[in-house]
Amino acid sequence: MKILYATSEAYPFAMSGGLADVAGALPKALRRRLVGCRVVMPLYSSVPEELKAEMKFITSITVPVSWRRQYCGIFEAKVNGVIYYLIDNQYYFKREGLYGHYDDAERFAFFSRAVLEILPYIDYAPDIIHCNDWQTAMIPVFLDRFYCHDLRYLNIKTVFTIHNIQYQGKYGHELVNDVLGLPEADTGLVEYEDCINLMKAAIECSHRVTTVSPTYAHEILTPHYSHGLNPILEKNQHKLRGIVNGIDTVVYDPAADKAIFANYSAEEPKNKAVNKAKLQEYLGLPQKKEAPLIGIVSRLVGHKGFDLVKCVFEDMLRADIQVAILGSGDWEFETFFYEMAKKYPDKVAFKLGFIPDLARKIYAGADIFLMPSKSEPCGLAQMIALRYGTIPIVRKTGGLNDTITDISLQNGNGFVFENYNAHEMLDAVWRAVGLYSDKKAWKALSDHALTIDNGWNVSAGEYIKLYKELLS
What we know:
By secondary structure, this protein is an alpha/beta fold. The protein is built from 20 helices and 18 strands. The protein has helices spanning 18-32, 49-52, 90-93, 104-117, 138-146, 175-180, 187-190, 198-205, 214-219, 223-226, 230-235, 272-283, 306-316, 331-343, 356-365, 381-387, 398-403, 422-436, 439-451, 457-471; strands at residues 2-6, 36-42, 56-65, 68-79, 82-88, 128-132, 157-162, 170-171, 191-192, 195-197, 208-211, 240-242, 293-300, 322-329, 348-352, 368-371, 391-395, 415-417. A hairpin with a 2-residue loop joins β9 and β10 (195-197).
């Protein structure tokens, strides 16, 4: 069984979010289970130079983009035993940032067509192309419409994974002729609600559709979570399956992580306290062992629950707690946390942006990790927090529901609130702060968190089952 994993980003080449973590870890996990898996992605200018230096040039071809043909260089790299193919076109990919450009639809239509065009040149004949999010959504469509009569492509199946249904690849109708090059008879595949919707097309044309947690698979069948796609998903429900993401337990390992202040493990957990003290010092907070330190590492946007946090934040600060926030996003929340850090310098530290090393330090040094999302397809941060012995507070939604169990239940590993309500969140915070005062109980909870395995082994097994079903 051979899988070609098509993605717009993958660790360690290019990263903007959780997709890169998944694309960097799942292929490794599949290979450990003796499944052939290679990755294909764009060659961005931001790929680290040391990785570019190790790449091997295979060949160059031209790729159709509607009525024109564009240069496509094919490079190969090998990292952690996984072979990566990187698609080169400097016009499309030599830019600042991975996304957010005026011609993103054309850039990723080119990439989607290139994934199929390179197959005769890479000495790898996949049984399945596993596509991810709207940037690769046209691969199943192009395969079905342009390559169905070519024997080399005849038996290839496609899987399409929805990492976040909010981002669907919506564009104007001019895209059909100018960029996609679809015949007029096929326009209906990509049309939806008076626009072109690439994710809708992928759901229609893929052989299987997955999303990143069982709860989210159920949620996106409802209008509240689907951002308008629930009729399409209901129609294709027989294809849909939710498989929870894992984390790379080698990349995220408190026993070996060079970014944290002191290493520790489930067997030797005492240095977690060292990380807290050093993090407090690093952030300019008083080194108070008795005050629980709440960590937040997130994009500061509404659907991550920061309107709840803003509503009751000063109520939280009446308790003897500290809060360390790392993130960027909406001006409203950035400004709010700047003001709170200035007003309460002994209680609040705020760092703007995403700083990977500091994120690791917060995971390791915090006692509690706050993640009150309005929606969360899977979420990795809550699992990374557990890996570092830090206890999550989460809302019962998406993958948070599938990975965090309230401590009131058997094998509980965190604090869960159900309704999207600021005072319900605050109650969960008070429960956590209250338990923290019981040092013996809190140490048992933190030590238990360090033993929880949220690695990819189980989830990779679920994908293998899916692949085998599809090929049979």
